[in-house]
Structure formats: structure tokens, C-alpha cells
Design brief:
Layout lengths: L25 H8 L3 H9 L7 E2 L5 E2 L2 H15 L4 H4 L4 H14 L8 H17 L3 H15 L1 H21 L5 H20 L9 E7 L6 H12 L3 E9 L1 H11 L3 E5 L6 H14 L6 E4 L1 H4 L10 E4 L2 H14 L1
Parallel strand pairs: 3-4, 3-5, 5-6, 6-7
Antiparallel strand pairs: 1-2
Helix pairs in contact: 3-5, 3-6, 5-6, 5-7, 6-7, 6-8, 7-8, 7-9, 8-9, 8-10, 9-10, 10-14
Amino acid sequence: MDDPYYWRMPDRAPTPGTDTAALHPISVVAERTGLSRDVIRVWERRYGAVEPKRSAGGQRLYSDEHIDRFRLLAAATRHGRNISLVAGLATEELARLVAEDDAARPTDSPVDGAAAHRETADVALALVRTLDASGLDRALRRAVARHGVSAFLEDIAPSIMHRVGDEWHARRFTIAHEHLATAEVLAVVFEAMRAVPETPAAPRLLVATPSGERHGVGAALAAAAAALDGWNVSYLGVDVPLADIVAAATATDAGAVAVSVVHTGDPEELAAQLRALRSGLPAGVPLLVGGAAAMGLNGLSAHPGITVCGSIAEMRSVLARVWVVA
């Protein structure tokens, strides 16, 4: 339930000494953008799209910011823009233009949905890189309007946060970038969840992260997705003691409990805590566990009443079966 924050967050710390200004040869740029080397060279030479650096031997070297620009330029041209008219735009302006074009695309557009989601993530990453909070907020809201809440929760938001996590671990993003992205994504997710009214006859899902776990995007995505499917949701937030989760489940007569765990120092201890949590819950209340840390816990799914979910879509499928049983 958190991949890339889809119930999964990267679980490793930044590597000390990693070069924060890593440069890439043109082959890497081509691989990451889908553009041919010839197109990259033409856009660079003829239109001044980027100004690469040179190695001691004269080889072109491109930064992550250059790759962001090429992705956005590629998206702009797919939307029908002439490269000569967009190559000179600032990256922030280019990102906003691509977001607007994506939002205005007709719903019967033949463009592949997965490709459109990638374009949205490209735009978001460029805006995070420049710490453009207002631009990111607009891009995320356009993504919801354009692709729907389900696609945002299951694919777009997890992809964005996964890529932010990768940039953080490579030390190309700072904690400021990660916090900004998290805050803007959570704002949109919580707004989507609040827009769904509770249904008196529906079961209740309790969502939280356990003590010591402060990464809450995956849990929030799970909560919003469940609300979208008709569950009444009680989102307790992050870093909640297991005893309090048990008490809340009893007090709210929860039909299921979901927790997201991203980091762990001791996998065996975490598994023992989750088994203890399941044992403390009322009989018949299933425990759904997601997150990068949960995915690495061998045998956890074999414990009665515990289901490990590898994605928001899988969690929704499990909850659908739980509701039918209930």
C-alpha cells in the first residue's frame, strides 16, 4: 500500500558522498526520455533547448534538470506544439503549459493512459525540482480532473512520490523537496477523501501507521481509495501506538484495519508487532498491511487475519471481498 509510496516508500537512507550534480551521457538521456539521439542533438543545437556540459574528452553531459526539460519538450510536441516555439520557455512555464495541454485533451484522445500518467508525473517532478508549490498544486488538481480520482490514487500520486524518493536517495533532492511534494499530494488526497460522504450502513475502515512510522502518504492513499469505494474511513494519521489502534478499532466497531509500514530496523520485530496487533483486534477484523517494509516480511501473509497488499489496487480488491463477507 505505498509504492513508490503506493503503500511503498523507499526504505534506504541517502548514500553518503553521492554526487549531487550527477551528469549523464546522451545515451542515458535518450533512454529516460524516449527521444532519439538525433532529436536530442537537433533540439539542443538548433533550438537551444539545453546547454550541456562537456567532459574532458568533449563528450556531452546532461544534468537531471536537462532530462526534465527534454521530457517536458517531448510532451509538448506530442500535444501539437512546435518545438521552435516552446524550446525557449523556462522549465516552470513549460511544465505549466504541458499540464494545461494535458487537462484540455479530449476524453476520447487516443493517447495511451499510462503515457499520459507519465507525462503528469514528469510535470510534477519538474515543479518539485524548482520548489514551485502553487504550480504543483495546480498540476495535481488538473491530474485529478483529467484522469479521475482512482487513477490519481492508484497510479499518478504513487509514481510522483516514488520518483521524488529516488531523487532524495540520490541526493538530488533535499528534505525541502520531499516535504513540499508530500504536503501537496496529501492536500489533494485529503480533499478527495473529504468529498465522499459517509454511508451509515457501510463498514468502517481504520487506517494508520504504527509507532515510529512517520511516512503517511501510503496510508492516506489507502484511506481515500477505501472512501471512494464506499467504506466509512477513520484515518488516525502517523506514528500511532499499536494499543491505541486496537482501542480505536474496538471503539469504532471497525470492519477492517489497514496500516502502512515503510521503514523498519528489525524485520522480525516488526512482523512480531504486526502479529500482536492482529491478535489484539476484535475477532474477525482483518488486518491489511502495506508499504515497502511489509513487502519484505517473509511469512506475514500466512498469519491468520493478515493480508499484505502490494498496491492500492490490491488493497481495494481485498476490501471488496471483506465487505461481501461482512
